[in-house]
Amino acid sequence: MRNEDTFTAGSTGTEDPISPHQEAERQWRRVLGRRSFLKGVGLAGAAAIPGSALLSGSAFASGGTLTQGDVAILRFLAAVELIESDLWQQYNELGGVNGGNSAYMAALSNLDGDMPQYIADNTDDELSHAAFLNAYLRSKGARAVHLDRFRTLPSSKATGAKQIGRLTNLQSLDVDTSWYVRYRSTNNPDLGATFRQAVNIRREPGIPLNDTDTPPNLPAPVPPVGAQETRMQAIANTAGFHFAYIEQGGSSLYSIMALKASNLEVLRIIVSIGGVETNHFSLWHDKAGNAVAQPLAGVTDPETGVTFPDLNARGGQLNQTNLILPEPCQFLDPGLPRCSIVRPTLDELGGAVATIASFTADRLFEGQSPRFFKVINELAAEADAAARSR
Ligand SMILES: [Fe+2]
Ligand SMILES: [Fe+2]
Question: How many domains does the chain have?
Fold first, then answer.
C-alpha cells in the first residue's frame, strides 16, 4: 500500500518513485522556470517564437476572452472547490444540520450550538463554487475539471456516512494549526516570519471512524466523561481546527490568484468567491477557539494522545482564544504601518502548488493514486505560472 504514497515521474515514463514533497518541489521549479521564460519574452523575443509556442504571455485578454493563464487559474480553483466539496460533504453527512451521527453532532455542538447549521451552509457554498467555476469555464469554451475518477478513498463506517468513494481522507489528519498563531501575530510570513503550532494534531480523525470506536448514541457532556465520549470530543475538536485550516488556505489562495488574473471578469469571480472563503475562515476561527477554552479545554484523545489544552491559561496575545480577528501585522515593508490583512499572499507560501503541498501534508489525500497527484500538481503548476498581462 505504501506505493500509493509515491509518484512515478510523469511524462518521462520512468518509474522512480518520488515523495509528495519532492513532487511539489518539482512542480514549483517548473513554475519558476516558466516564469523566467515568459519574463524573457519581450516584443522582439515574442516575434521570434511561433504563435502556438506562446503560452499565457501571448493572447492577452480583451473583452470577454480569457488568457490561458485565466483558464489555468479557474481550472485549478475548480479542482480545489471539488476537493473542498468532497471533504465538506463528508463532514456534512455526519455532522451537518441533517447529519446522521447524533453523537458527532452533539460533540460538535459543544464548540457552538449552531455548528451543524454552519457545516451544512459551508458545504452548500463549496458545491456552489465548484459548479459555478466549471459552468463558467464551459461558457467560455474552456474545459471543465472532473475529478470523479479519483473518488476512490473509503468512507467512514460510522452511522450517517454514505458508503461511496471519496476524493479526500479525513480519517487520520495532521492538522497544521500554525494559522492560529499567525493571525494573532504582528509578524508576516511573507516577510519571513514562521509560526509554531497552536495545538499538535497528529494522526487524528476529523470524523468518527466507526460505531465501535464511537457509538452514535453517545452523550456529549462538557467536559466529556468516559473514554469513548472523550475520543468523540477530540474528533469534533479536530474538525473545528481543520475547518479553519482549510478555509484560511482558501483565503490566501484566492488572494494570490487574484493577483494573476488578466480578465476583469475573472478577477471579479476570484475576489467574490475569495471573500466567502475568508468569511468561512473567520467563522471557524471563532469556533475552534472554543475547543481550547474553558469549559471544554483539556480534552485528550485516549487513542492518539492528541490534547486540546487551555490556551488562555498560557496567557499572551498569541494564545488568547477570543482574538479571532486578524491582528494588524507587517505588510509589504516593515517601515509601513501594520495592517490587518489576509496572509500569506506570496505564491511560494500559499499559491496553488503550496496549497496542494499543504493539503498533502495534512494527509487529506492519504491513499490517493500517483495519477491523482500528477493531475492535481499539474493543474497547480499551471495556475501558479499564470501572470497578470496588463
Ligand atoms: Fe470554496
Ligand atoms: Fe472554502
Answer: 1
